[in-house]
Design brief:
Distance between the termini: 21 Å
Shape: globular
Largest sheet: 5 strands, parallel
Radius of gyration: 24 Å
Order of helices and strands: HHEHEHHEHEHHEHHHHHHH
Oligomer: single chain
Number of helices: 15
Helix content: 40-55%
Length: 435
Amino acid sequence: MQQEWHRHLLPNGAGDVSFDPTLMTRFIPSKTASQQRHTSDQPARPLRCHLLIGPPASGKSTLARQLAALLSGTEEPPPCYISSRDIRTEIFGDRGVFGPWDDIAAVMHQRIQEAVRSGAPVIVEATFSRRAWRLAITQRLELPVPVEWIGWWLRTPRELCQQWNRRRDHCVPEQVIDNHVSLLGQTPFSPSRSEGFAAVVCVEPHHHEQLEPHLQVVLGKLERRISAARNRDARLIPHGYSRLLECERLLHLIQLLSREPELTATNAQPSHEESAGLAERAAALLARTHGPCYADVSAIAADLDWLRQQGFTTAWRVNSEKGKPAPMRAVEPPPWPATQPLSPGGWSALGDREAFCRALTLLRHILQAVTAGHPASCTRASQRSSRPMAFAMRQAVAAMAMPSAPRCCPCRCRWKSMGCCRPMPIGSVIRADRP
């Protein structure tokens, strides 16, 4: 089964395919984000809603009350306050009971849709320590009108959270607080504009004796901040995988195909029924490993078709009149849907069309080079040789899934992720000769 799967993931004769790097820059002209925004029919000002992010006992409820008071004095309707703590009380009978998040999220999403349908902005309060929980609202949730999400990230120190927690009526176990602080502290997956936020405001309550004056200043500068961020994004050319949700789903899917050879054992062109079955199985695995927001069966089926068309699977064939391998062309992403308005939030690190084409073309070339250097990985007798390919796959996908972030170490160099202050050759990051 495993040798058949490796032939399914990569083109037949991957080691014989020649790669023409000159084709990587031959992109089809497209409209920039600024041009598409001017031609779209979306309203001038989307409904502005707020997502409060932070570990337990970090001051989210206090921030929500003061933010609601400040927003109530504007021309917009009074905001609707939605709290995971109140939902836990309704579902489980006690706000101190931490039940399954999926049950809480289902009620939360329904109330957000009802509030937005009525035209009222919402203030949603929960820990949202995992990216999948945030993306489920900012990019996955279907809303009747366009919404502009503002993220409020409370970066309260761990010790202060534990100190405030001991003063509460319902104390949270300290281990729960430590877990949420650690999840939010992971730099590649911490809250950012790339998750669909128009802006992410970092709030440090321990730095302000009075929080309300600070919030007034932030709200006063918020419009200019959002406008400046959109101007920076206006030069990008969007495509079908510009949003972080679609981009990460594609990368997670490629990674899943290299890790789970039992998903399929066919080397032929799959039929429509077989493709649909593969999409359903892949969606179940993505939901379990990364989150339900990535488990869109129809979208995964479209991703699988796109991977086959772009030469990531055996459905792609090299045709040449003289029998020589034809040059492989650069990856071409699907266009941005013409009927879908552009997201009012930020884009992923591969949101620009040219950056996506170069990165995915390189990823495809890495996969082919690894397989060409280890032909025994396609045989059942040499299952150990498939480990280098999986290692290179994990390294490449993890690097591309990360949003752009400053890479600095304590000595202020640029190589924190490399573990030292000395630049490391690119080849050593994705070496295929170690497990």
